[in-house]
Amino acid sequence: MDHQSRIRHLLRRFGLGATLSEVRHLSKMELSEAFEYLLDYDEVSEPYPISPWEFSTNTNNDKINSSGRLFSDWWALKMATTRRPLQEKIALFWHDHFAVSDIKIQDGRKMISYLQILRRNATGNFRTMLREISKEPAMVLFLDSHRNVKGTPNENFAREVMELFTLGEGNYEESDVLEAARAFTGWSFRDTLNYRERDRLNEQIRAKVNNGESIFVFRNIPGRHDVGTKTIFGKEGNFTGDDVLSMLLDHPQTARYICYKLWEWFAYPNPDDALVERLAKVFRESDYEIKPVLRAIAFSPEFWSKKAVRTKVKSPVDYTIAAMRQFNASAVLAKRDSGELDQFTPIDGTVRRFASIVNREMRRQGMSLLNPPSVEGWHWNEEWVTSETMTHRIDLSRRIFGNRRIIEPLIEWTAPELAVEQGEGDHAKLVDRLLELLDVEVSREQRWILVGAARRYGGNGVIYDTRKAVPMLRDMLKLVFAMPEAHIC
User: Fold this and answer.
1) Helices in 98-173 by DSSP H: which ranges?
2) What count of Cα atoms within 13 Å lies in the side-chain half-sphere of residue 443?
3) What is the number of H-type helices and E-type strands within the chain?
4) What is the DSSP string of 36-92?
5) Cα 36 vs. chain centroid, distance in angstroms?
6) Residues 133-143: pLDDT tens digits?
7) Which of 24, 243, 293, 419 counts the most CB atoms within 10 A of its CB?
C-alpha cells in the first residue's frame, strides 16, 4: 500500500470522506503527523461555524422550535462541512454506545445538550464522559432514572450501564443490577426556565445558551434515595450511584468492552482476545484516556491488514456524508450563509434545505440521527445493506445530484478537479478522476462502463457546462452507486 492509499484508509476510518485537496494536503505529511492532525482537532479552525440554534429559530416569528429533527439536521450539516471529521465520527460512535432517542425524549433542547456532551468528551476521558452522560437529563429521562425511588427501584439505568455502557452482557449478576438500582435512587433533573414568565421563554433560552448555561440540570433528591446497605460485586456498603460508577470503572472488563467496540468501529468486527487485551492495557494505563487507544488502533499492524482495508460496509453517514464532502459541500454552502456570530440568527434557507435533504437520505438508508432504534443503538456493517436500503443508496444520485439548486454549485466547484486536457483518452481520464474523487476502486470492466457513459454525454468537453454536466455526472454516479465497491470503506 503506497502512502496516499494509507492516507485514504486513515480518512475512511477516522474521517467522513474528503475532498481531493484534503487528501493531497494530508499526503504531504508523514502518516503519524496526518493522524495527529485528525486526532488533535481542537487545533483545527472551523471556517464555517454553525450553531444548532440557527436551525431552531423560526424565520417568520423569531420563536425557538425545540423539535429534535431540526437539531439532527444541524448535525448532518456539521458532519458534511466540518474540518474536524474525527470529532463527529467518534461522537456518532458514542451516540450509538450511549444511545438516547428523541422518539421518547420529544425535546430537541435535551437532545442537543446530550449530543454536546458526547462531542465535547469524544476523545477525552471515558471516566469523565460516563459520569457526565449518566447524569445528563436526556439520559435520566430515557432510562427512567427519575422514576427510580427508594421502595420501588427502577432497574433500567442500572441494567444498561452494566450491559451496554461498561461491562457487556454476561459480566455481572442479576443481583448486582437489583442492588445497583437501589444505589441510583434519587437521580432526577429539573427545568431551569421560569414558566411563570411564559412571554419571556424565548428570551430566557437565548440568555442561557449565550451564557453557556444548561436549560435542564441534574438533580439528586436525598428524600428519594435508598440509604440502606447494598451488596454489589461482592462488596457491602451504603453505596450511592457515583460509587457504582466507580466500581464499574475499576472493573477490568470495562476497558476490554470499550476497546472491543472501538476496534470494531474503526477497523473490523470480532477482534481476537489478544488484540483487545493489548488495547485495554493502553486504556487502563492511561486512566481511561481515549486518545491513546485511538493511536494504538491506528498504528496496530492489524489496522493496515487485508482484513481491515476496504472491508467494512459503509453506514449511511459514511456513504451519504462522504459524498457531500467529496464534492466540497462546505466551500459552497459557506458562500450561501452569512456566518453571523449570533447563534440564533436563522440559517440561510438553501443551507437549511440542504441539511434537511441529506438527513432525510440517511433516514431512508436506516439511520435517523438522534433517533437510534433502541437502547442498543444501531446494528452495523452488513445489516446496512438490504434490498430497500440499496434502492435508496443507488437513487441518491437522482435525489441529491438531481436537485439543481444543490448540485450545480457543487459541480462548478468540482469541475476543475475532474477536467483533463482534451485529447485521445480524455473520457477515461475523466472517469479515473471521478473515481479518485469518490475514493472508489472498480474492476476494468466497470471502469469501461463508466467511460461509455461519459462518452455519450460529451465527457470532458462538457464538464464546465453545468447544464450538460449535471445529467452526465448524475448518471455516472448512479452507475458507480450501483457497484458494490462504492459501499465498502
Assistant:
1) 102-105, 108-120, 126-134, 137-142, 156-163
2) 5
3) 27, 4
4) HHHH-GGGS--SS---HHHHHB-TTT-PBP--HHHHHHHHHHHHHH-S-HHHHHHHH
5) 19
6) 999 999 999 99
7) 293
